[in-house]
Amino acid sequence: MSIRVKICGLRDPETAIQAAHFGADALGLVFYEPSPRHLSIELARSIALAIPPFITRVGLFVDAPSDYVQSVLKGVPLDLLQFHGNETPEYCSSFNTPYIKAVRVRPGLDLVKYCQIYCQARGLLCDAYVEGTPGGTGAGFDWSLIPDNLPLPLILSGGLDPENVATAVSKVRPWAVDVSSGVEKSKGVKDLAKIEAFIAGAKNAPK
Ligand SMILES: O=C(O)c1ccccc1N[C@@H]1O[C@H](COP(=O)(O)O)[C@@H](O)[C@H]1O
């Protein structure tokens, strides 16, 4: 099975198009104001419309008011929502749009139970826990905390980069990987060479 790769935090159409040409399967647009990758609805729309077909356009939210998510969905063509905060299963299911749920992995957290609670999610995204910041931190975590028997497709993220992604894919065998900081030259500024190397590293990881 070939690994899927999501590149998160695109901020201009040209970089999104390049990432698609390098083989990205999904591209993430951030709607979380404190993030350096936050987009206005207008800019997000121009990026989403530039993305070629058969690439999943993902909108990322963190504990956003429902009417804000609705207004983004009205203005921006999105295929999938990524909820990266403490959203309830009822909230996540209320937008009539497929979603993935992010969880910040910590010792003692029962990830199988978490999947059962979010059973409507299309996948579970496992990220690092960093006090005070919901994600996009570049921090990694102990992959051995992820059980083998997760009932949802696993999307591995948190501190991945072109150097460690092949090891992550070979060891953890996730359905997909997701990256933001690891393919940037500075906070919020993507690096095309790193995006290309990350995608190649993930897709050519030893089986
Ligand atoms: O990218 C962001 O700015 C962001 C903001 C708030 C929550 C999540 C965010 N991104 C997601 O965080 C993880 C880990 O990213 P990193 O590669 O460690 O920087 C990833 O799933 C991003 O989609």
UniProtKB/TrEMBL annotation:
Reactions performed catalytically = N-(5-phospho-beta-D-ribosyl)anthranilate = 1-(2-carboxyphenylamino)-1-deoxy-D-ribulose 5-phosphate
**Annotated N-(5'phosphoribosyl) anthranilate isomerase (PRAI) domain residues:** 5-199
Q: Which domain of life is it from?
A: Bacteria
What is its pathway? Amino-acid biosynthesis; L-tryptophan biosynthesis; L-tryptophan from chorismate: step 3/5
Q: Does the keyword 4Fe-4S apply?
A: no
| Statement: the UniProt record of this protein carries the keyword Cell wall biogenesis/degradation | no
Q: What is its EC number?
A: 5.3.1.24
GO MF annotation terms: phosphoribosylanthranilate isomerase activity
- Xref: SUPFAM superfamilies: Ribulose-phoshate binding barrel
Arranged from A to Z, the UniProt key words for this protein are:
Amino-acid biosynthesis, Aromatic amino acid biosynthesis, Isomerase, Tryptophan biosynthesis
Q: What class of enzyme is it?
A: isomerase
Matches recorded under Pfam families: PRAI
- Per its UniProt record, what PANTHER family does this chain match? N-(5'-PHOSPHORIBOSYL)ANTHRANILATE ISOMERASE
NCBIfam families in the record, alphabetically? PRK01222.1-4, PRK01222.1-6
What family does the Swiss-Prot or TrEMBL record give for this protein?
Belongs to the TrpF family.
Q: Which HAMAP family match?
A: PRAI
What is the name of this protein?
N-(5'-phosphoribosyl)anthranilate isomerase
Native source species: Parachitinimonas caeni
Taxonomy of origin reads: Bacteria, Pseudomonadati, Pseudomonadota, Betaproteobacteria, Neisseriales
* Gene assigned in the entry: trpF
